[in-house]
Write a structure and sequence with these properties.
This protein has helices at about 5-25, 50, 65-85, 110-120, 150-170, 200-205, 225, and strands spanning about 55-60, 90-95, 100-105, 135-140, 140-145, 180-185, 190-195. By secondary structure, the chain is of the alpha+beta class. It is extended. The protein starts with 5 loop residues before the first helix and ends in a 20-residue tail after the last helix.
């Protein structure tokens, strides 16, 4: 017959009792949680899709959309940079063709100044040592700005990181569900939400397009009329927090 020391028996018994105590909250369901003492641990185990079911969605990004968006952004940035230059640089025939942004500098004397403005719009592409855009001058006055492969990869990676954060915030707004949100490869995101049996609702939530609008403030509006709900023609009334700073 095995003879265990008393201290070892007590230690094992306490360890087993502690394990049972920690697992009990996960075994309680529905109304049973109301009777669980508040001074005891109440954290539960995430059962996952295999044990309690839920929704599983695989999202995939389209790199072509990222490339098109970058070209549109670069075109607007070029226009703004040339206007802000001192003196301003007159350009024409700006277009997006063949995966590049091209434009002509009207005054050949301003070619060097235009190049300096363009260099300021480019950055390093991660740790590759390359820039995210190539700048080329053709026919003395025409600039062709082409995204590099390293720049596109960096842009896709940043877009995927941003998308992952947005997905996590949207699912968190539904309440504590302990979702699993991980990237799969370069352009895919796996989303698993245990306990959510409505994948269509999840797709609708994740498919919403964020929209940011800027509104000019009408400082000449009559405060009394606004307070009475009668804004000037062409104006709208939006609620304003009492403490915008959040302090």
């Amino acid at each position: 017959m095995l003879d265990f020391p008393r201290w070892k028996v007590i230690s094992i018994s306490l360890l087993v009792a502690f394990g049972v105590l920690m697992s009990l909250p996960s075994l309680l369901v529905g109304e049973s949680h109301k009777y669980w003492p508040s001074f005891l641990p109440d954290e539960t185990i995430n059962l996952g899709l295999d044990l309690q079911g839920g929704s599983h969605i695989l999202l995939e990004a389209d790199p072509a959309d990222v490339a098109v968006t970058r070209l549109e952004t670069m075109e607007e940035s070029v226009r703004a940079a040339m206007r802000r230059a001192d003196p301003s640089i007159s350009i024409g025939d700006i277009s997006r063709r063949d995966g590049a942004v091209s434009f002509m500098v009207r005054d050949s004397i301003q070619v060097d100044a235009a190049r300096e403005e363009l260099v300021a719009l480019t950055t390093g592409a991660g740790l590759t040592g390359q820039r995210d855009w190539d700048i080329e001058v053709r026919d003395d006055t025409r600039f062709v700005v082409t995204p590099t492969e390293a720049g596109i990869e960096t842009a896709i990676d940043n877009a995927m990181e941003t998308a992952t954060d947005v997905i996590r915030r949207r699912i968190d707004s539904m309440g504590t569900r302990e979702p699993t949100i991980i990237r799969q490869g370069d352009t895919r995101i796996v989303v698993q939400v245990p306990g959510l049996d409505d994948p269509e609702a999840l797709k609708a939530l994740l498919g919403q397009t964020a929209k940011l609008e800027f509104k000019l403030v009408d400082f000449e509006a009559d405060p009394n009329a606004v307070a009475a709900g009668r804004p000037p023609v062409g104006s709208q009334i939006f609620p304003y927090p009492d403490n915008p700073s959040g302090l």
